[in-house]
Design goal:
single chain, alpha/beta, Rossmann fold, 15 strands
Length: 563
């Protein structure tokens, strides 16, 4: 349920905070007081379209926040929170939306920033708003099949899940077949292209790691003369005219003699001796290299040509030899599939035929379950309509089967009704009378609210155009709906207001030369006074006050009966 609502700088509302109770809450007040503004705020909080026009004049932004308590731990909203990576906070969900003076919105769910689309997904599973002239899902033929399936219950939903699993495999297979059966000219062009690319790649005979090895070898050949010169000079310094090794050898000889009688020179003597033999070994090694070094210009040219060929392949087929070989394997497999596509088509077609047979069986089961549920639904709605004094109305679920499979099977259906004897049944969207549409919607909502898992249902003046006993019936029906879901209702009917568990009075007043809307809970004498105003208009008399008191007393008795 919506427990708390906070509105700041929204339209003519400067700041309002209100707590809601379980059951039925009605919002009443004079025309133009701002009752619909409250519903507009809730609508935006649930992801509705917003703009800077909603911001109170002179303010920088409008702020909306709603606190919801969800006692059903299996409520679908928790799955949505997990789906969008939002941490559930036990049984509490907080929706917040700020609209700035540029018309941009900042949305949060449980403190986490989300997009408008995500706010709408989550808000839509918590709040269901109905207005007399609003295009709502009950009036949308496309959504009637979903509503019927929800009404049908567990058996149908299990069967539908089985069907949809098979249907997903069917769609995937059909897409693959469509891809295989592409234009023949395009396939021939692909075959030619892949064959050419494979021949070109194979002709180069690439090996992984080859480019790095060749690059190192090229560097050695390019630096041959410099390397030869430097090694020669190093060898000369150690072992020829510079006599580096001789001088170290002399130092070794002298210290060895001294160390034989003075131990303090033993360590430096050993160090110089070790250095002498290391230098001697290095000199032999450098001499061997110098004797074997030979510049091979032909090998350098071979390396350059090979690296150029590799670079050419990289420009066409990948950023490295490894990427090129992966691409070669990929197009090889695709070429094999293209060449052998006829065989693949036959195999996939056989699979498709088998899946279509399974779908046909599962779709038939869905249709059978739906038609059975449709009879039950029609009976339930007619019962509801009789309670709303529409005894002559008829209601039917009309099926229009189609040849193609879709996500729901092979059924297309719509809700049809007739409100007058002798008149043909029409789609719900064609019902013109406001009063009839209101009662029809209430009848449907009385049934579907138990199956949709909506936390809060909001009725925005759906009782317009009715009076007398019909008004009382509508009041009792709205109260009945509130037994299974919290209901917030804007109303001008005293019968509806009297059935409320909570009544909020919305008023407009001028403070400091600014118009603002206030919201106050009324009870006791104040509530009697407000009901009296709703009955008589501006003039409140002792008789209207008595009538209001009697209406409240009768409403309490009716609520006890309807619990």
């Amino acid at each position: 349920m919506l427990k708390e609502l906070s509105i700041k700088n929204f339209a003519i509302i400067e700041e309002v905070s209100v707590s809601f109770t379980d059951g039925l809450t009605v919002l009443t007040g004079e025309t133009g007081a701002g009752k619909s503004i409250i519903i507009d705020a809730v609508h935006l909080l649930a992801g509705g379209r917003g703009s800077q026009e909603f911001i109170r004049h002179g303010a920088k932004k409008a702020e909306l926040e709603g606190l919801f308590f969800i006692q059903d731990e299996k409520h679908p909203v928790f799955n949505k929170l997990i789906e969008f990576g939002i941490e559930p906070d036990e049984d509490t969900i907080i929706l917040r939306r700020d609209i700035n003076d540029h018309g941009k919105s900042v949305c949060r769910v449980n403190g986490r920033l989300v997009t408008i689309a995500i706010l709408r997904e989550i808000g839509g599973s918590l709040i269901d708003i109905h207005g007399q002239h609003e295009s709502q899902e009950l009036m949308d033929d496309r959504l009637h099949i979903t509503l019927l399936d929800q009404f049908a219950g567990k058996d149908l939903m299990i069967q539908k899940e089985k069907y949809q699993n098979t249907y997903n495999a069917y769609k995937k297979l059909k897409k693959e077949l469509t891809s295989i059966n592409d234009n023949e000219q395009q396939i021939a062009q692909k075959i030619d292209l892949y064959e050419y690319q494979i021949r070109e790649i194979d002709a180069v005979q690439l090996n992984e790691g080859e480019e790095e090895t060749l690059t190192d070898e090229r560097k050695k050949h390019q630096n041959y003369h410099r390397t030869f010169e430097k090694i020669s000079k190093a060898y000369e310094a150690i072992n020829n005219e510079s006599r580096g090794l001789d001088w170290v050898g002399q130092a070794m000889s002298e210290l060895t003699d001294v160390a034989s009688y003075d131990d303090q020179f033993k360590e430096p003597s050993e160090t110089i001796s070790s250095t002498f033999y290391s230098l001697q070994e290095s000199a032999y090694y450098l001499k061997g290299i110098l004797d074997e070094m030979e510049f091979d210009e032909g090998r350098l040219n071979e390396i350059e040509d090979r690296l150029a060929a590799i670079q050419s392949m990289k420009r066409k087929y990948g950023s490295s030899i490894e990427d090129i070989l992966v691409y070669r394997e990929k197009i090889g497999l695709e070429l094999d599939e293209l060449i052998n596509r006829d065989e693949r088509v036959q195999m996939r077609q056989a699979e498709l035929t088998k899946i279509e047979s399974e779908l046909e069986t599962k779709a038939s089961k869905l249709t059978k379950l739906r038609k059975s549920a449709a009879v039950e639904l029609s009976q339930s709605i007619l019962t509801q309509l009789r309670e709303l004094y529409m005894e002559k109305a008829t209601f039917n679920v009309k099926f229009s089967p189609h040849n193609e499979f879709d996500k729901d099977g092979k059924d297309s259906l719509s809700f049809y009704m007739s409100t007058n004897v002798g008149e043909p049944e029409k789609p719900l969207s064609k019902i013109a009378s406001g009063g009839e549409l209101s009662r029809m919607m209430l009848a449907l909502k009385s049934i579907f609210s138990k199956h949709q898992g909506i936390t809060s249902i909001i009725f925005d003046e759906v009782d317009t155009g009715v009076s007398g006993r019909v008004a009382q019936a509508i009041a009792e029906k709205i109260s009945s709906i509130s037994n299974s879901s919290q209901v917030l209702c804007i109303t001008h009917l005293p019968q509806v207001a009297a059935m409320a568990d909570q009544q909020l009075l919305i008023a407009k007043e001028v403070l400091d030369e600014r118009t603002t809307t206030t919201l106050t809970e009324v009870s006791g004498k104040e509530r009697v006074h407000e009901l009296s105003r709703m009955m008589s208009g501006a003039e409140i008399t002792a008789r209207t006050l008595d009538h209001a008191t009697e209406l409240l007393s009768t409403a309490e008795e009716r609520k006890k009966i309807n619990k």
